[in-house]
Write a structure and sequence with these properties.
The complex is a heterodimer of chains A (366) and B (301).
Chain A (H helix, E strand, L loop, with lengths): L7 H17 L9 H7 L1 H11 L4 H10 L4 H12 L17 E6 L54 H7 L29 H10 L2 H12 L7 E15 L8 E15 L12 E8 L3 H13 L16 H6 L3 H9 L6 H25 L1
Antiparallel strand pairs in A: 1-2, 2-3, 3-4
Helix pairs in contact in A: 2-4, 3-4, 3-5, 4-5, 7-9, 8-9
Chain B lengths: L22 H16 L5 E2 L13 H10 L5 E6 L6 H14 L2 E2 L8 E5 L12 E5 L13 H9 L4 H14 L10 E3 L3 E3 L9 H4 L5 E6 L4 E5 L5 E3 L26 E5 L6 E5 L2 H13 L2 H8 L1
Parallel strand pairs in B: 2-3, 2-4, 4-5, 5-8
Antiparallel strand pairs in B: 1-9, 6-7, 6-10, 8-9, 11-12
Helix pairs in contact in B: 1-2
Classes of the chains: A alpha+beta (366), B alpha/beta (301).
């Protein structure tokens, strides 16, 4: 009988208990700690911080634990928490040239000031399952070779962009006229066409898998990018604010970030000689796949500005930017789980009516 | 900032403001609502926040409700017309947790009604506010996905695209094939999506004494129909607007004038039709029980 939708309240409470139980798993296995997640699942933490738009390793690790490892759910938890935080002010722009590097590579020059620093990367591991990890081990080996001298904060290495810029080979990137305060899309919804600042904010919060697919599509001919990885940096930078009562910047902490500067071909136009153009990617923590994908998509979205024909999905602002946020997409796709009895009933009635009138017609035509 | 996890707000909710949102956010949303009321049917962009419920599950309606609700309000939450569907239960629990205010299932007792997909059968009154949860605020979105284009169409009141769509429906099927989220003209100016209510409910919007507010969280838009405003469902002179009718009565209360849900009762496809509005159905059954059967029979005939 008609009881299916009754008792919703109790059902919801019970489902909460079940999800806690499922999260915990077999109670005879030790419970994972937030600190363990923070230390040993660092790349998951980085992704959750990046798309959750909060730099806090501990909260991100907590979110991962609560979400039973579902990163998109963890991102949701962190974002909802973020929305309740008061906003004290804005930091000064970070200076990535002053980054304390743990990794820095360029695919465009064999060597460059500061050198190529591989750092912690999976790039040249052979993807063979390491069965020794299946048992808890005491320690890992120390790096054997002469480690490159650790860079100190005082050292600044010109990035590849500056080297190319000196020759005028890459577009200059002066601040916009009057250096306006960038729009904040967490406060004011984006309107189209969106400024580059808004686009970059959107991409920085955007779903990694989505951006990866968009970026990939540009490499396969849906928008021609011809990209080169000019420079990828991973390391820590200082964050400064200028308190009103002091009037000068003070350091309030450090962030680990990944930055990608992509170099792209550009044939030039009547007014601009041929030169390279830029695509830019930035993410919290060590998130190279995200930063690179972001840089490719950023460049593709500049099509209109650079006078290129907008023909591929990755070049279409509204398409790319309106679908990049995984809170929005996951929420709306999964809202189909909610009851739709009323709309469905309306469609059902219409379909029956249409079938009835069609069969009436075919009968009368006999 | 390095938040101390142990001090982060927990399920006791003590760390959150009344109705969850901070007062500055509420003020921003109230401003958007005021603008929406001043320009009936116009979609006002607002800085939608991430809520602790997923986008697409009512975050727009929740933000609107959170911004207008006060300690003396009485809240009713329905989904598909029913107070006891899981999403309605969840949203009502959210407001009970974060405000502690009184809730009701009775339409007449509520001062604020948050709804998804229905307008109550019981007529609303001028002290009530109905808040609709809206998935897609743009009525033209299915015809023109680019917002830059639809904004211009609204600016110029250029709604030919929608009329052509409706005309093509008639040419192909003999009638308009939109059954819910049926487009309306508000105060003769803006084309508006009534949210996915069945077109059965569209006439209730017209000259309604209650304030009607619409919140789309994911799409970051708020719009409104002020009390006693003309709301006209699009139609043609030779194809006037019509609402759904049922051959059946409600199997529980016998109503012939309410929107009926179909419920499958057994594996052989047995079915019954019942009111989607649970409060309306419940009230009718109470009234029927209170009067002698022969009078009830005469009334429902």
């Amino acid at each position: 009988m008609y009881v299916a939708v009754k008792g919703g309240e109790r059902a919801i409470e019970n489902s909460h208990l079940l999800v806690s139980e499922a999260r915990r798993g077999d109670p005879s296995i030790a419970e994972i700690s937030v600190a363990q997640i923070e230390q040993q699942l660092r790349l998951a933490v980085d992704r959750v911080m990046t798309e959750g738009s909060v730099y806090d390793r501990e909260l991100a690790a907590l979110a991962i634990k609560q979400a039973a490892g579902d990163t998109v759910e963890a991102i949701f938890l962190l974002r909802a928490y973020r929305a309740t935080l008061p906003r004290f002010g804005y930091t000064e722009a970070i200076d990535t040239l002053k980054m304390q590097l743990r990794r820095r590579i360029s695919a465009t020059f064999k060597d460059l000031p500061g050198g190529q620093v591989l750092g912690p990367t999976y790039d040249y591991t052979q993807r063979l399952l390491d069965f020794s990890l299946a048992v808890a081990s005491a320690e890992c080996g120390e790096p054997q070779t002469n480690p490159p001298p650790p860079t100190s904060p005082e050292q600044e290495f010109a990035d590849v962009m500056a080297l190319l810029g000196a020759e005028g080979l890459i577009e200059a990137q002066p601040p916009s006229e009057g250096d306006p305060v960038p729009a904040d899309l967490t406060r004011v919804p984006m309107t189209f066409p969106a400024s580059r600042a808004e686009r970059l904010q959107n991409l920085a919060r955007g779903d990694e898998g989505y951006l990866l697919a968009m970026a990939y599509s540009t490499q396969r001919g849906y928008a021609n990018n011809h990209p080169f990885a000019g420079e990828i940096r991973f390391g820590s930078v200082e964050v400064e604010i200028i308190p009103e009562e002091l009037g000068f910047p003070i350091v309030i902490g450090e962030l680990e970030i990944t930055e990608c500067q992509m170099v792209n071909q550009f044939a030039g136009s009547k007014t601009v000689p041929p030169q390279f153009t830029r695509g830019y990617g930035l993410a919290f923590g060590h998130s190279e796949r995200k930063a690179m994908a972001m840089a490719l998509v950023d460049r593709a979205l500049r099509a209109e500005e650079l006078g290129e024909a907008v023909v591929a999905p990755a070049q279409m602002q509204e398409f790319v930017l309106s679908h990049s946020d995984n809170l929005e997409s996951s929420g709306f796709v999964q809202h189909l789980k909610l009851p739709h009895y009323v709309d469905f009933q309306s469609e059902l009635a219409l379909l029956r009516q249409m079938r009835a009138s069609q069969s009436a017609q075919s009968e009368s035509s006999i | 900032m390095n938040a101390d996890v142990s001090r982060a707000p927990d399920s006791s909710d003590s760390g959150y403001n009344f109705a969850y949102l901070d007062e500055r956010t509420k003020r921003m949303i109230r401003r958007a609502i005021l603008k929406a009321v001043a320009i009936p049917g116009y979609q006002v962009p607002f800085g939608s926040r991430e809520m602790p419920l997923p986008y697409g599950w009512g975050t727009g309606g929740i933000q609107v409700t959170a911004s207008i609700i006060g300690r003396d309000d009485v809240l009713k939450v329905i989904d598909q017309g029913a107070d006891d569907t899981v999403n309605a239960v969840n949203i009502r629990r959210f407001f009970t947790r974060t405000t502690g205010i009184a809730t009701t299932e009775r339409t007449v007792e509520a001062t604020v009604i948050q709804t998804r997909h229905r307008i109550p059968e019981t007529p609303l009154q001028d002290h009530q506010i109905i808040v609709y949860q809206v998935p897609i605020p743009e009525p033209l979105a299915k015809l023109e996905p680019r917002e830059a284009e639809t904004k211009m169409m609204h600016g110029l009141a250029e709604y030919g695209l929608m009329h052509v769509k409706l005309y093509e429906d008639i040419a192909r099927y003999g009638h308009i094939s939109t059954t819910y989220d049926y487009p309306v003209m508000v105060d003769g100016r803006y084309l508006m999506a009534p949210s996915p209510i069945p077109k059965f409910d569209n006439p209730k919007m017209h000259m309604n004494p209650a304030l009607q507010l619409f919140g789309a969280g994911r799409e970051k838009r708020i719009y409104a129909v002020p009390p006693y405003t003309k709301v006209e469902s699009l139609a043609f002179d030779d194809h006037p607007f019509e609402v759904q009718r049922w051959e059946q009565h409600c199997a529980l209360c016998g109503a012939k004038d309410s929107f009926l849900d179909e419920v499958i009762t057994d594996n052989d496809g047995g079915r019954m039709f019942i009111c989607s509005d649970t409060d309306y159905c419940g009230q009718r059954r109470e009234n029927l029980a209170a009067v002698p059967a022969n009078v009830a029979e005469a009334k429902s005939a």
